Amino acid sequence: MGAKGAPKRYDMSTLRDAAMKSKAWPFEEARRVLKRYEKKAPEKGYVLFETGYGPSGLPHIGTFGEVARTSMIRRAFEVISDIPTKLLCFSDDMDGMRKVPENVPNQDLLKANIQKPLTAVPDPFEEFESFGHHNNAMLRRFLDTFGFEYEFASATEYYKQGKFDEILLRAAEKYDDIMAIMLKSLREERQQTYSCFLPIHPETGRVLYVPMKNVDAKAGTVTFDDEDGREWTLPITGGNVKLQWKPDFGARWAALDVDFEMYGKDHSTNTPIYDGICRVLGGRAPEHFTYELFLDANGEKISKSKGNGLSIDEWLTYASTESLSYFMYLKPKTAKRLWWDVIPKMVDEYHQQLRAYPDQTIDQQVNNPVWHIHGGNPPESKMVVPFAMLLNLAAVAGATDKEGLWGFIRRYAPEATPETHPDLDQAAGFAVRYFHDFVAPERSFRLPSEQERKAMQDLVAALGSPEAALAAIAAKNALVGNDEPLPDADFHSDEFLQSVVFAVGKTNGFENLRDWFQALYEVLLGQSQGPRFGGFIALYGVPETVALIERALAGELAG
User: Fold this and answer.
1) What is the CATH number of the domain that holds 59?
2) Domain shared by 398 and 506, yes or no
3) By CB distance 3.0 to 4.6 Å, which of 333, 382, 442, 528 could disulfide with 421?
4) What pLDDT, in 10s, does the model give residues 269-293?
5) Nearest 5°: phi and psi at 483?
């Protein structure tokens, strides 16, 4: 066991025992996957975890979330089993572009290529071979930023290089069985034109949604009429034909022998279809995990085409990669609002968990989110100042860059430097940016009421000297009948300064002290919520806080 504050090291047997009884959802899912191979290991030699990506729009945080969460389950599995694992990120980039995303340039160019496979649609950004290649590259860049271990797969390459030829030929043999599964899920009107096969038109290159006149399993061909009534016969192999997205799901599971895949709640009703087609094609359906969807500021589902959610780049403009991973860990089966205002909370909660980790038992550690974010080896938190406090410091200090905050930070924590506390240094830069972009435009200062003015004047007096501060605490103790000895007067202590603020509020008749603290936030910071105020005074400085209150009382902040 390490010293207090140092990470504890456990042997694999102890760790595995803790993991096998952990209630953390990644371990629960990992145990379900392990159960698949209780009798014998997989013939392919490894357990395959898969995530799917539809590159019809720019990657969003939901896409990242699938990879992050699947990686957490994969790490958990590697603790409880010695079977090797792989993570395959599969892009359905041969899908036809059914509509033009609203958040990309060159809309007319894209409209001219509707229904072509995404890897045949020109890149509207004019950077890559196609729109599909562009979005795949964006996804891979994002995943690489987070250090995920994965293999990338392109549907276009798998179809054209013949990697799916065997399963396509089997689909032709089982065409009637697949259609029976699909037709039960379709409206009568759609049943008349539906086929699980989608031919790629030899002339226009468009993905055709047309009925099949004939499926010849022996010859490996399909015959159909195009939109102009011309008859065509094409081989179903070599990238001439692809599968509709629901059959494609099940066929991919069968072809690759996928053991685990998660997807959003909007797919949940299709699970029996995916599983049924996988089994018809000779495969074993994988374990599934259905997560709830992310919501935007208005509580609406995030859409790739609308771009109404936060992008990964946007989150990383204001907070660390780890804070986003922490957000992904929390309650995956609960719909979560994903908007700018969740970022500060996620940063501070993540560091709270990091600080708690070293002194936890092994059973507690494997249930701590940071174990799953960092694969059992979380770093030490050097965030001696919470992100929320940095935001308020940026507000009152008028900081335009992180260097503007470091003078206050050094006085508050003399041992801290940008070099020794890189996470704090990074957070300081994020805080300044976040404050100027989101907090400053929304701030609204007000003048204090008479009761609040009197209390703030008393707070200024109490902060005037250690003797005055102790007198304020003594007056509060007398009021509430507390005969405990007075604490040491320490103007550098968060706790002492919090006691002073608390005492002033109590002696000024604030029955609910929450009203007193809210008044401080609204009058001094221009917002209805704020930091633990004693900590804020310790960070910003007693003389600086007194000057801030005096400016507010003079009407300079609300003017």
Assistant:
1) 3.40.50.620
2) no
3) 382
4) 999 999 999 999 999 999 999 999 8
5) -105, 20
